[in-house]
Amino acid sequence: MGEAIGQILTYGVGVALSPFPIIGTVLMLATPRARSNGPAMLLGWVLGLSLVGTVVLLVSGGADPTDQGQQADWVSALDLVLGVLLLWLAVKHWRDRPRGDDEVTLPKRMHTVDSFTPLKAGGLGLALSALNPKNLLLVIAAASAIASTDTSAGTQAVALAVFVAIGALGTGTPVVLYFALKERSQRILDGLRLWMERNNSAIMAVLCLIIGAKLVGDAVSALSS
């Protein structure tokens, strides 16, 4: 159990600190349907992480560590590919970061949240968790790491659940603040949204750099041993 969970902590934190989903959740909580749309987006986010992770675990079923207790070569090769892709995303986000007084541009769908129904809010959460390139790479990396451990299917399912719970902390925190503090939460959430809008690219670049470098390093070490 500890081995499987230990494999996914870094990836879970990387998913949790995704700026756009947090910004989207805060925007949802400023709409007339905040009480339904905020939790709906969080639910969609959790569902997306769970679906992608489950699919990877099922596809990876039966791929066990080597006889020497090392992770299988396919896992190391996958880590290398994912790491390189994350490093590329790090460079892209860093180059795209706003400079000086540059205006920060949000995705078009973020500007129409006032008209969202709970179903649309859930769909946005699902799309941001399952289709966003950075999150998709991290979920695949986490699920493949879990699948490579010599543990039972039940233990792997628990490890995936822990990963999803950690990954949901970022989008879940604004929802908890909204219901716990009510009107008093608005100033806190607005400040969080503005800061993350301004620093989105830098945050993403640092996350992708750290996790990408870790994946590449681990993969090269495993493949060369």
What does this structure look like?
The protein has 225 residues and is mainly alpha-helical. It has one domain. Helices cover 76% and strands 0% of the residues. The protein is built from nine helices and no strands. Helix 1 runs antiparallel to helix 6, helix 3 packs parallel to helix 5 and helix 6 runs antiparallel to helix 7. The radius of gyration is 18 Å and the shape is globular.
Question: How are the SSEs placed, and which strands pair?
Answer:
Blueprint: H1 2-16, H2 19-28, H3 34-59, H4 73-96, H5 118-130, H6 133-147, H7 153-167, H8 169-181, H9 185-224
Helix pairs in contact: 1-6, 1-7, 2-3, 2-5, 2-8, 2-9, 3-5, 3-6, 3-7, 3-8, 4-6, 4-9, 6-7
Q: Give the count of structural domains.
A: 1
In angstroms, what is the radius of gyration?
A: 18 Å
First-residue to last-residue Cα separation: 25 Å
Regions with little confidence, pLDDT below 50 for 5+ residues? none
Give a short account of the largest sheet: none
Q: Which descriptor suits the 3D outline? A: globular
Specify the number of helices: 9
| Mean pLDDT figure | 86
| Proportion of residues in helical segments | over 70%
SSE run: HHHHHHHHH
The total count of strands amounts to: 0
What is the quaternary state of this protein? Answer: single chain
How much strand content do the residues show? under 5%
Structural class: mainly alpha
